[in-house]
Design a protein that fits this description.
258 residues, 13 helices, mainly alpha, globular, 66% helix
Length: 258
């Protein structure tokens, strides 16, 4: 699950290099991430705002803070504010653009504009590939009815991810969320993917189970099976970690499925 920065695409700490910001802005931004992880979204938004308004962040740091504040706003239900912040993150045109485009594209996807999401996610993938933007791009294209057979197709992105070895030498797709990618490629059955989510670091179990529910639900929606998707979204909205993209996404999807 991505965290605010998912990689845990829910919230990873905003670890800005020292040269990107002065200490106070870094402290505020990291405190904001901690608050979001605890479900204290209003506090997180206030802290991100203070960091942004301090004029102490570099261009890249400011783009990151805008993006994370946008996700925090979306998680708290302020979708208009989230859109504005994600637009700011992209407009800054910084070294953070691969992430900024990915997050804005993901937000469009869960808001029901899969075509717009696919366009942003393709731009993200053209700059940098990681497991979650590869998953999001494929799902956005699937839901939008857009062909997925170009250089940033899931098949090609999976090959890029596979060669990225872990510290133990393991291939990329053997590590979570690799099983989600294998499922989307037709290389795993749904029950095999969910079983894979139960394996690995017990401290990350909730994140993996959250992913399995959410991305299987996305797949069901893409195949016009909202009835099967809804209970999976409901479980993700309830059980996913507070700062996760999946919790925010599941909540947004449920609002549209009512």
């Amino acid at each position: 699950m991505p965290a605010f920065g998912r990689v845990f695409l829910a919230l990873a700490l905003l670890l800005l290099p020292a040269e990107l910001a002065r200490a106070t802005a870094i402290e505020d931004a990291n405190a904001a991430v901690v608050a979001a992880r605890s479900g204290k979204y209003d506090e997180a938004i206030e802290l991100f705002t203070r960091a942004i308004n301090s004029d102490e962040l570099s261009l890249t740091g400011r783009a990151q803070a805008y993006a994370y504040r946008g996700i925090a706003k979306a998680t708290s239900g302020d979708y208009e504010g989230a859109q504005q912040d994600l637009n700011f993150a992209v407009a800054l045109d910084s070294d953070y653009n691969a992430d900024a485009y990915a997050y804005r594209g993901y937000f469009a996807l869960v808001q029901g504009d899969a075509a717009k999401g696919a366009a942003d996610l393709a731009k993200s993938a053209g700059l940098k590939i990681w497991a979650y933007n590869a998953i999001w791009l494929h799902l956005a294209r699937l839901r939008a009815g857009v062909s997925d057979n170009d250089v940033v197709s899931l098949k090609n992105n999976a090959a890029t991810i596979e060669v990225a070895r872990g510290a133990d030498g393991s291939p990329g797709l053997s590590r979570w969320p690799g099983p989600v990618i294998k499922f989307l490629l037709g290389q795993m059955k749904p029950e095999e993917m969910t079983a894979a989510a139960e394996q690995g670091d017990p401290q990350r179990l909730a994140e993996r189970v959250c992913d399995a529910d959410f991305y299987l639900a996305q797949y069901r929606v893409a195949h016009n099976d909202s009835a099967a998707a809804k209970p999976l979204f409901e479980r993700a909205a309830e059980k996913c970690p507070f700062a996760s993209f999946e919790r925010m996404g599941a909540t947004a999807e449920l609002m549209r499925l009512k």
